[in-house]
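Before any further analysis, backbone shapes were mapped to integers, which produced the following:

***
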Amino acid sequence: MAKNTLILLVFIAIKFLLQFVLLSSEYDLQRDEYLHLDLGNHLAWGYLSVPPFTSWTSYFIILFGNSVFWVKFFPALYGCLTLFVVWKAIEELKGNLFSLVLGATCVLFSCLLRLNMLYQPNSFDVLSWTVLYFVLLKYINSENSKWLFIGAFVFAIGFLNKYNIIFLIIGLAPALLLTNQRKIFVNLNLYCAIFMGLILILPNLFWQYQNNFPVVHHLKELAETQLINVNRFDFIKSQLLFFPSSLIVIFASFYAFFFYKPFKNYRFYFFSFCFTLIAFIYFKAKDYYAIGIYPIYIAFGAVYLSNILKEGWKKYLKPVLIAIPLLFFIPMYNIAFPNKTPEYVVANSEKYKKLGMLRWEDGKDHLIPQDYADMLGWKELAHKVDSVYLALPNKSKTLILCDNYGQAGAINYYSNQNIKAVSFNADYVNWFNLGVKYENLIRVKEHDDSNVELEKTAPYFQKSFIAGSITNKYAREFGTAIFVFEDAKIDIRDRIRTEIKKEKTIK
């Protein structure tokens, strides 16, 4: 086995293992992960929340046993593949061993460790961006049109994973027009490739049309809720924090596009970077949407630095450059990952507070970071719902109705009774089984909304009571209550249909 290949495998092994050891067993899966996993039980060409690719992955996770290992395996795999593609990009740029190690180290010890920890579309999104940039590099170097078709395929898969990849094209198209690489637009094969890509994404586009374009409504909802609080300056500031240990390498690539002759043909990458960021800023996108931009620039920067540090005193800077990402990782390890117990975080709250990690989306500081709190209380909820369910008569005619997708998904994932909880929230609104005339209702209510639940719902049932609540004080769902209603006096499906219609009308 070649030395370079062996070193690459070592990097991949370290990357893969870190994705598992940086997460404490104290934590459950994160709220979004449960929804994404449940998509695998409802295969379709589209969803209210995401395109269909995630559901395909979830289907395989379910086939493999639906264990936490397999849930974490796929984002870890996508992270490893991102590192691999950066390595291959460096090779394509004729980089030496030092540039390969530098690039791999920068990718390894970066925000991708945090990103690749969660089963969300973001990990594959970053991989898709990196591969598409790499494919374009291969086309520029070879002018072989097969790479255009490969690129169209990569774009289509990336699109079917997350619509975010459209921003890559928004930035890339004008960048190509500004440079001598504009000649790509007179290649007829480009348009054949684009047509092929459109064919591949057509089923999802048709699904969007059939369902009244929920993506438009989703974006509108984001703009009115989460994105309204996005500060454009904070977006720019965050970009410096995603790859802090690699900034020298990334900025070196920007310099090289203009002053390093071998990179003259790649100058459009710089303009693409600028146009893409401008588009993100204009649309007030979340800061992490842009993470996929950076890995390819690490490849360019690593190759350039390896060439200017070959001789004289400069060569002694090589180990320094490789050490920087590792040195940055040490403080990151101690604070940026959910590898400490909630009790530890609370006991050392000041250092978390200084970094703004205790600030939730409500604008207030809490005991632990929001994403940590979103990984607590779920097993407790599911096991308590199971206990209630087991005690009920006519279990097959029992509806488990939750306030949000996190509750429903967690119950479905951790339940030992094959429970299928639903919600009027997110994609669960489409997954009600209205073929069953329900006699019992288990209602999971968020703490803030639980006070009037008995008064509101009890008149429609013969018996009602509170069966329990989430008691983990560190959980975001702390206080979420479980209500039980037995022996319905009416056919509750009529009210369910009304609520479903109301939710879909709003959306």
Summary: Residues 343-368 form one domain. The chain has three domains: 3-335, 343-368, 378-506.
